[in-house]
Amino acid sequence: MENNIKIVMVGDSGAGKTSLIMSMSNLTFPTEYIPTVFHNSINITHNNINYTIRIMDIVGHDDYDPIIPPNYQDNDIFIFCASNSDQLSSLKSKWYIKMKQPKNIMFVHTKCDTNGITDKQIKEISQVLKPKCIVSCSSMLTFKIKLLMVKIIEQYIELLK
Ligand SMILES: Nc1nc2c(ncn2[C@@H]2O[C@H](COP(=O)(O)OP(=O)(O)OP(=O)(O)O)[C@@H](O)[C@H]2O)c(=O)[nH]1
Ligand SMILES: [Mg+2]
Q1: Residue ranges lining ligand 1, Cβ < 6 Å
Q2: Most confidently modeled range among 34-48, 60-74, 133-147
């Protein structure tokens, strides 16, 4: 059986989406700024099972119209990213609506090394997004990046049930 996990990265410009993908791909931190819309593929083995995580990176800048992947399916996982209050607000007011209120959301508190979001704020946003899971991580420190990947796989397995 092919285990293709499809991910859509969502969030404002500067939320750290591309850095997160790079960090998951290489477990290193990119030093160049890369504004991006691209597909990325990560192979990972977990409990002796091979998975391919296919990630669609969405550019967060207002100059670009955010695009919902044309081949969007119900079992895609949407990773909603924010590293500060403003980005958190637009997840609610902009992205959640633009993405058509997806069901399978994982909330990722990016750049957790900067302490830009409080536990209280995470609780508040969770009431709106109703994420299946919440991970605070730092691409820069490669902190909890592996955990995030495991959570993605667990979420995928859950969706297959
Ligand atoms: N301190 C810190 N900075 C980070 C971290 N991750 C990303 N950054 C910085 O945040 C900035 C934005 O990161 P990107 O990954 O390009 O953000 P993005 O969400 O892809 O932005 P767009 O492509 O414009 O939508 C860059 O300057 C990164 O170096 C982190 O974990 N900690
Ligand atoms: Mg980017």
Answers
A1: 11, 13-19, 33-36, 59-61, 110-111, 113-114, 138-140
A2: 133-147
